Amino acid sequence: MAGPLVFVEGVRRVTMGEMVEVLLSDGSSRRGQVIEFTDRYALVQILEQSTGIDVLSTRIRFSGAPARMPLSPDILGRRFDGAGNPIDGLPPVLPETWRDIGGTPINPVAREKPSRPIVTGISAIDGLNTLVRGQKLPIFSAAGLPAREIAAQILRQAGTGEGERGPSSPGEKFAVVFAAMGITFRQASYFLHEFEHSGAAGRTVVFQNLADDATIERLLTPRFALTAAEYLAFDRGFDVLVILTDMTNYCDALREIATAREEIPGRRSYPGYMYTDLASIYERAGCIRGKIGSVTQLPILTMPDDDITHPVPDLTGYITEGQIVLSRDLHRNGIYPPIDVLPSLSRLMNLGIGPGKTREDHRGLADQLYAFYAQGRELRRLEAIVGEEGLSESDRRFRRFADAFEREFIGQGKRGRTIEETLEEGWRLLRRLPKDQLTRIRADHVGKRYGTAAVEAGRTGE
């Protein structure tokens, strides 16, 4: 034995990922999983506390099958631990089918290109980093920033577009799968309260591995959650939103196991295969041709020391289709949600906007707002060096635009906005600048949306 690892000699015909039962001398049992084998031994990872296990009196029973989950529509509204066991006091799920939690790889040819937007009610996302059904879009947070509040707000407000509100929109088959990995009981209680408050409790499946639960169990939690999500999406036709929090805790558990196995460490002691392991989770999002449902992932991770180059956010950014980055400076200035739109990105945004989805002027408006805000941020740094007197009147106008953009467009508070309200708020900000500066928007859109009093408003600096 070595910590949570048990080396079993003389075993034949074992398979990778096979579940085992560890039988103790006092009659109790623990769960385990085969994570490696050679011609000499099988390496079993204990999925619960390893206290009380000794070499002489412990017996190992191999199941002959990998970890599987019983599935039926009855999983909606249920709560499970990180290893898929019910913890809500209700009877076990009567299975309609069993699924391997490792999932079945989606044939790339069968993948359907995501094209349906999710209107989250948050302007910084809907307007500039649109979320599309079937996308994987992580939230990069840091200690003390309100990532959980933003995720809960998206849960309350998420709709399909055209001003729809809420997961309980009539006729919409919407479900939420929430996987908690190493978070505190208080954080988990917050999300459970939000599920009930939003009316989504009956359409929610919760997998809960708290900070005082077995660390090893954390590696199974997202896989059980995604197995449930795939069943609801591709077998039952639900659009499923999967919230995974906190992926940094998951990666720390992966590092802990790799250390116990005495593997050669990679960057910052994380195992070299962490990229592959994360990909096996994130790539389970998407849409399948011929299937009605979709799996959309919203992973939440904490950047240690606010470092976006840390291995966890760095590798996550490579695998996923963008990121939503939270800003400590905006949070410090009282702006909510504190989303920094400059490093944020949605690579699938163009697939989910435009005529028939959001509005025909959406792309040009987003580009113009982004350009003006970036220019205003740059002038803000310049002003810190030369002072306000060193800026021209035109520069001061862009500087004021950046302040107004943060205060009025990004800082919307807890109130949600429809996509129409988000785009009109963007145009209201653009009317503070001269019409001839709008070089990234088509002329017919400018003529239709800008308004006759806009030039004067820009001159007066309103």
Structure keywords:
462 residues; alpha/beta; Elongation Factor Tu (Ef-tu), domain 3; Rossmann fold; eight-stranded mixed β-sheet; five-stranded antiparallel β-sheet
Question: Nutshell version of this structure?
Answer:
By secondary structure, the protein is an alpha/beta fold. It has helices at 123-126, 147-157, 185-197, 221-235, 247-260, 274-282, 311-319, 328-332, 362-386, 393-410, 419-430, 443-449, 454-460; strands at 5-9, 18-23, 29-37, 41-46, 59-66, 68-71, 79-81, 97-100, 111-112, 117-118, 131-132, 139-141, 174-183, 204-210, 239-245, 287-288, 294-302, 322-325, 345-346.
Per DSSP, the total helix count is: 13
**Helix content, binned percent:** 25-40%
> What general outline do the C-alpha atoms trace?
elongated
Uncertain stretches? 160-171, 452-462
Estimate the mean pLDDT confidence. Answer: 89
What is the end-to-end distance?
71 Å
Could you say how many structural domains there are in total? 3
Radius of gyration: 25 Å
Stated plainly, the CATH topology of the largest domain is called Rossmann fold
Largest sheet: 8 strands, mixed
Q: How are the strands of the biggest sheet laid out side by side?
A: 7-14-13-15-17-12-18-19
Strand pairing plus helix content: what structural class?
alpha/beta
- How much beta, percentage-wise? 15-25%
The CATH class name of the largest domain reads Alpha Beta
Query: What CATH architecture of the largest domain do you see?
Result: 3-Layer(aba) Sandwich
Q: What is the number of strand segments?
A: 19
